[in-house]
Amino acid sequence: MNLNLDFAAIIERWPAFLDGALLTLQLAFIATVLGTVIGVLGAIGRRSSHPVVSRICGIYVEAIRNTPLLVQIFLVYFGLASLGLKFSAFAVAAAALTINVGAYTTEIIRAGFDSIPRGQIEAAEGLALSKAQIYWHVVMWPAIEKVYPSLTSQFVLLMLASSVTSQISAEELTAVANYVQSDTYRAFETYILVAIVYIVLSLIMRAGFWLLGLVVFPRRRRLGTPL
Amino acid sequence: MHKISNVASQSPVVSLRNVHKSFGPLKVLDGVSFEVDRGEVLVLIGRSGSGKSTALRCIDRFETIDSGEIVVGSHRVSDPKLDLRALRQDVGIVFQSYNLFPHLTIEENITLAPCSVKGISKSQAKEQARQVLAQVGLEDKLHQYPEQLSGGQQQRAAIARSLAMQPKVMLFDEVTSALDPELTGEVLKVIEALAADGMTMVMVTHEMGFARGIANRVVFMHRGKVHETGPAAILTSPATPELAQFVGTGL
Ligand SMILES: Nc1ncnc2c1ncn2[C@@H]1O[C@H](COP(=O)(O)OP(=O)(O)OP(=O)(O)O)[C@@H](O)[C@H]1O
Ligand SMILES: [Mg+2]
């Protein structure tokens, strides 16, 4: 066995890796922001007393959770193409990842909503708050604080899963790796480097979520106790 | 059965007339009637399951009734077209399990409803928060979170939160039952001060000594009915054997 590693040719291509990493982060950022919005709306929808609304949200969640991400990406990609709509690979990747993570986020946030005790809502009703005000002030913020660690993991997972979008030639980190390794014939070295970059990206995201948590959950910041 | 003659000229703040309420096959309120005049303290007592909480919750429309009539001030609670949020601006309710919002400071707990419901300014609401907290003796807890307070302090903060909406009537459902005995006193003192200030109140309590001291009217519920009612004196000289047995057991 003779392991002969040569990173020189790979390291030389660092600007391409940097671009790829930035694109991966952008995909993750867009899908995280939009996925959170979908998750909140989806969770409200799933808990709706309107059977059609809760049914539609339920079907969405189950359809996404029971199909592979790659197939979802192809569905969006070829679906839009067959409608004669042309979008960049990046836009398609961002859309598919958002739809995917939105379903998981819906389930996580719904669990958070369900964990708010009935008494909290009754107290708010007794204070004459409207339904929307109760959702915003009394249900949503504490619910999100409770499930924040799960949300963080889900979004980091999404960032890693975004490597699958290399299949439709979105120029993210894995796609860059794919062509660098075919140019340099240094496949193992390339993927070692890419793995390290993914780890760094994960750490960056976790640090970002930690900082965001300090800003949006002042009680947590001051007391440090879980809700 | 004692009957109170209503000599007050003004109409009662709260009135229940022949209220019926069932949960499925279980009849919980079986023709309940009582009235509370302005500035009066009505104490609801009775065994567990006799329908006290249900009666109280019907007043704030947390439960809908099957038949009968409930009127609170100008609100016809039993009317399906009731403006629910208008009713709840006039009625404050405090539960056994304080239900403070854990993610908000005491000040934010108190200012939330005045700001979002009544639309008063933040600074005005904060000023008011200071006032109501002073009223319950918690001025220094403004910027604390609920979990940093003892049970008695949390319950006083919950009362202050209700008071900030300037309700016309306050409902208390066993507000000291979750507290250690040494903490009940501080909460009961706050309620006594409110009564002395002329707040109209309906309260469910198992504190018989307290009820004797504060009640203008006592309603003893038994099997979904008002079994005996009268001034606080009925607690010491009950007319019905059921009430005699109830107060005798010291419940
Ligand atoms: N939402 C509900 N659904 C079904 N049954 C209920 C509901 N709420 C109350 N009940 C039942 O109605 C009866 C009266 O309950 P209620 O809470 O009014 O009694 P209570 O006098 O307040 O008793 P306690 O002293 O234990 O608080 C009980 O048998 C209770 O189990
Ligand atoms: Mg009760």
Structural commentary:
The complex is a heterodimer of chains A (227) and B (251). By secondary structure, chain A is mainly α. Chain A has a domain of 143 residues: Orthogonal Bundle (MetI-like fold). Chain A contains 10 helices and no strands. In chain A, α2 packs antiparallel against α7 and α4 packs across α5. The longest helix of chain A is centred in the N-terminal third of the chain and has 33 residues. Chain A starts with 7 loop residues before the first helix and ends with a helix. The model of chain A has no long low-confidence stretch (mean pLDDT 95). Chain B is α/β, with parallel strands linked by helices. Chain B has a single domain, classed as Rossmann fold. Chain B contains 8 helices and 10 strands. In chain B, α3 crosses α4, α3 packs parallel to α5 and α5 packs parallel to α6. The relative contact order of chain B is 0.18. The interface between A and B is medium-sized, with 24 and 29 residues. The site of magnesium ion (MG) has 5 residues of chain B, from α1. Magnesium ion (MG) binds next to α1 of chain B.
Distance between the termini of chain A: 54 Å
Strand order of the largest sheet of chain B: 6-7-8-3-9-10
Bound molecules: adenosine-5'-triphosphate, magnesium ion
Report, as a whole number of angstroms, the end-to-end distance of chain B. Answer: 21 Å
What composes the largest sheet of chain B? 6 strands, mixed
CATH-assigned homologous superfamily of chain B: P-loop containing nucleotide triphosphate hydrolases
Helix content of chain B: 25-40%
| Averaged pLDDT of chain B | 94
| CATH fold annotation of the domain at 31-173 in chain A | MetI-like fold
Task: Provide the low-confidence segments of chain B as ranges.
Answer: 1-8
Helix amount of chain A: over 70%
Mean pLDDT of chain A: 95
Strand content of chain A: under 5%
